[in-house]
Amino acid sequence: MVSTLRRVFDGPVIVADDSRHPQSFDDPGISVVVLPFDTGVAAGRNAALAEVSTEFVMSVDDDFVFTPELDLNRVVDYLRRNPEVDIVGGRVVNLPLWQSPDYSTAPLFAYRGEPVRPADTVIDGLPVLYKVPQFFVARTDRIRLVRWDGRLKRVDHNDFFTRAYGTLLTVFDRQFTCLHAQPKFNATYQAFRRDVAADLSYLGQKWM
């Protein structure tokens, strides 16, 4: 992720690392937040977010790959033109099948209160969605109003956007794209990634 991001972005990067052997980077623009082993993605995202000092922040996963077509300036320009929008979500293309999940009808755990704008709204050419991939650019101060539930080690995605419903306004930009190269043949990695029983149990109690 870092190596491909550096081809298109030379600004500050914050890596939350909860691996057994935290990685270091020979790049003064990359900060590593070292966490206890297997802290989990939600606590990691919160720890990284706490270190952000810029107006906007991009949230990504460790197995994303960025191509030269990634245009962060265009997304930031959109947010500057549309101050009511809090998040611009992008399209994640899963390799090797080149498939992208459709979030236009993705359900949340609950719909409490009213949305900031209805899902059929179009703002400056981009549709409003209640949920987008975990690949987005957001206003830092606004996303801090929601954050991630630190009790979730893996499946934090739907919980985040359920809690963001009615607070954050999210749009989807199909042209804003990254690739998802999950290490499917790394048995150790997959054992942790699939260890979601405790998370699902917690979510079932939380949103029942």
Structural write-up:
This protein has 208 residues and is α/β, with parallel strands linked by helices. Helices cover 25% and strands 21% of the residues. The chain has helices at 2-5, 41-50, 72-81, 140-143, 157-164, 187-193, 197-206, and strands at residues 13-17, 30-34, 56-59, 64-65, 87-94, 122-123, 126-127, 136-139, 170-180. The protein has a 5-stranded mixed beta sheet. Strands 1-2 form a two-stranded parallel sheet. Strands 6-7 form a two-stranded antiparallel sheet. It is built from 7 helices and 9 strands, in the order H-E-E-H-E-E-H-E-E-E-E-H-H-E-H-H.
Summarize the structure.
The protein has helices at 2-5, 41-50, 72-81, 140-143, 157-164, 187-193, 197-206, and strands spanning 13-17, 30-34, 56-59, 64-65, 87-94, 122-123, 126-127, 136-139, 170-180. By secondary structure, it is α/β, with parallel strands linked by helices.
